[in-house]
Design a protein that fits this description.
Length: 217
């Protein structure tokens, strides 16, 4: 099997990179850039009363990062934890008219969301948290959010039903995948494409360079 190519081929020149995410899309996106480990943080993703969407994504990212640091500091990890590390966590949501559209609970919920998005422009918001560690003890962190405007074409009820039947919407915020079958629905994107997929790479790479002196090329 051919070894995957990365933007950063000299892994020895950068610290240990840990992605706190169970999303295969985030793992794949970061894998294009750099070799990394991935851990699945156990965090409840539920908005608090009065919490706006942007603050919600930032809090989720911070909690995922903290949970990842805690998990990697536990028993069985000590041998790998010496030296500098960078933990990255991200949370992505779809927002329409101020309402957060999370992952659908069932097919009917997915059809409802897609009907809402049909012919409309919505916002995809990602909160990102980067934590620098020393021997897996947090030193400092940087948290930011990225917003992208996405316009969906008018969807006929029959095509909504057909798309939901593929199963693709069921694990995705807003019930569609920009990197899959759902790409045909997207009429226009203003902003970061990778943000819509689930990890804003441009902003992440810049933050790693400017805030943590981590250069991935």
């Amino acid at each position: 099997m051919q070894k995957q190519k990365h933007l950063c081929e000299n892994q020895s020149a950068i610290p240990r990179i840990i992605l706190g995410s169970s999303s295969p899309r985030r793992r794949e996106l970061l894998g294009y850039i750099v070799t990394h480990e991935a851990h699945s943080p156990d965090v409840e993703e539920k908005p608090k009363s009065g919490e706006n969407p942007g603050d919600y994504t930032l809090r989720n990212a911070q909690e995922k990062a903290a949970a990842t640091v805690s998990a990697c500091s536990g028993a069985g990890h000590q041998a790998k934890n010496a030296g500098r590390g960078i933990v990255i966590a991200c949370d992505t949501i779809v927002v329409l008219d101020g309402q957060i559209l999370e992952k659908p609970v069932d097919s009917a919920d997915a059809r409802r969301m897609l009907a809402q998005l049909s012919g409309r422009t919505h916002t995809v918001i990602s909160g990102v948290c980067i934590v620098e560690t020393k021997d897996m003890k947090p030193l400092r962190d940087k948290t930011f959010k990225v917003e992208t405007q996405v316009s969906i074409k008018v969807l006929a009820p029959a095509e909504i039903t057909a798309y939901v039947a593929t199963g693709e919407p069921m694990d995705k915020a807003g019930s569609y995948g920009a990197q899959g079958i759902g790409a045909y629905m997207i009429a226009q994107i203003q902003g970061s494409y990778s943000n819509v997929v689930g990890l804003p790479l441009t902003e992440l790479v810049q933050a790693l360079r400017d805030e943590f002196d981590v250069h991935l090329w």
